[in-house]
Amino acid sequence: MTNITIWNGELTSRTRLIKRGLYFLSPGFLWILLFLVVPSLLLIVVSFTTRGTYGEIEWTWTFDNFTRLAGFGLFGWSADYLMILWRSIWVAFWTTLICILVSYPLCFYIANQPERKRYVWLTLLIIPFWTNLVIRAYAWLLVLAPQMPFAKFAANLGIVPMGSPLYPSSLAVYLGMIGTFLPFVTMPLYSSVEKMDWSLVEAANDLYAGKWRVFVHAILPQTIPGLTVAITFTFVPAMGMFVVPDFLGGAKYMMVGNLIQQQFGTSRDWPFGAAISLCLIVLTLGGLHLQNKYVKQKGELI
After folding, report:
1. How far is CA 105 from the centre of its chain?
2. How far is Cα 207 from Cα 66, in angstroms, rounded to an integer?
3. Confidence band, pLDDT 50/70/90 cuts, at residue 1
4. Residues 256, 258, 264, 268, CA torsion sign
5. What value does the mean pLDDT of the chain take?
6. Residue 62 — left, alpha, or beta (φ > 0 → left; ψ -120 to 50 → alpha)?
7. What number is the average pLDDT over the span 140-149?
8. Confidence band, pLDDT 50/70/90 cuts, at residue 158
9. 16 pLDDT band (50/70/90 cuts)?
10. Which one of 94, 179, 219, 239 has the lowest number of neighbouring Cβ atoms within 10 Å?
11. Is 224 within 8 Å of 299 (Cβ atoms)?
């Protein structure tokens, strides 16, 4: 006998509710299936194939793409590809960390402003989203040009020759990455700072806690939700970024995103590019797993 229930003023059954739920979920499910699951499965399949003479895919199954990524080739072992992967992790880590260190005081400053000024600051943070990433990267080329104050100041200190720009260099890459991802950290972090319970901070101060203990025990636990989102929105895309390193780092500072773009573009080595992309996905998921594990442990300790 079918169980009859009343839902939203309508006489219905459990089976009908399940069918209705599946009906409403089906568009989103199909979207994820077509544009996320299927491309990911194709990426895995292509990563085990072979590149043909003219760049076509030959359906000959092999692990050579992964051994090549590990550094093993016709002329022995080389750490070039592993160094590119490590550089990508390193740059993404420092980009995320510096953005967090800058965003915390900025979020507290904005939260303590009057409501009208607060909206002005938030609008200024959102403005970078109104322009294309390529345009912003070109803007950094202008800012770091030889005739600009930054390059002249660096030349007076002897960092670069007189009349030389500050790019291509690792400094330019970091400036571009931080400028690109700072809004991705500040906005979710601000949402947590704005909702903070300041009575906990006052209680910590009343108990003569130092500034560091106040931050660790009263502020950090309340901002962990926003911090988790900020790290995810920054570390994951920074790992695969290729526009900023390509413009501001050139061939001297290749990252894994540039390597993937090269394989799918000029080299036309799709199987090797798919293998690199698969490795990047695994590294990203591993980083997110460690982040979630750390956040849970931190929450338990606090």
Report:
1. 21
2. 56
3. very low
4. negative
5. 87
6. beta
7. 91
8. confident
9. confident
10. 94
11. yes
Q: Tell me what pLDDT residue 115 has.
A: 84
| Token reading at 59 | 């359906």
Q: What is the DSSP letter of 251?
A: G
Task: Please give the C-alpha separations between residue 20 and each of 33, 147, 168, in angstroms, as whole numbers.
Answer: 20, 64, 57
Q: Which DSSP string do the residues of 176-240 spell out, in sequence order?
A: HHHHHHHHHHHHHHHHHHHT--HHHHHHHHHTT--HHHHIIIIIHHHHHHHHHHHHHHHHHHHHT
**Main-chain phi, psi angles of 48, to 5 degrees:** -105, 10
Residues in the chain: 302
pLDDT(204) > 70: yes
| Distance from C-alpha of 127 to C-alpha of 119, rounded to nearest angstrom | 12
Q: What is the pLDDT of residues 49-96, one digit of tens each?
A: 999 888 889 999 999 999 999 988 777 788 889 999 999 999 999 999
Classify burial at 103, counting beta carbons within 10 Å of its beta carbon; exposed 0-12, middle 13-18, buried 19 or more.
buried
The residue ranges of DSSP E strands in the chain, in sequence order, are 4-7, 10-13, 50-51, 57-58, 72-73, 76-77
Task: Give the whole-angstrom CA distance, residue 178 versus residue 171.
Answer: 11
HSE-up of residue 212 (Cα within 13 Å, Cβ side)? 0
Q: Who's near 214: CB < 8 A, 6+ residues apart?
A: 201, 204, 205
pLDDT at 9 (0 to 100): 54
**Cα-based distances in Å from 249 to 79, 83, 158:** 20, 15, 20
- Is the predicted pLDDT of residue 11 greater than 70, yes or no? no
Domains of the chain in sequence order: 82-301 (1.10.3720.10)
**Mean per-residue pLDDT for 13-42?**
85
**Token pair belonging to 44:** 């895995």
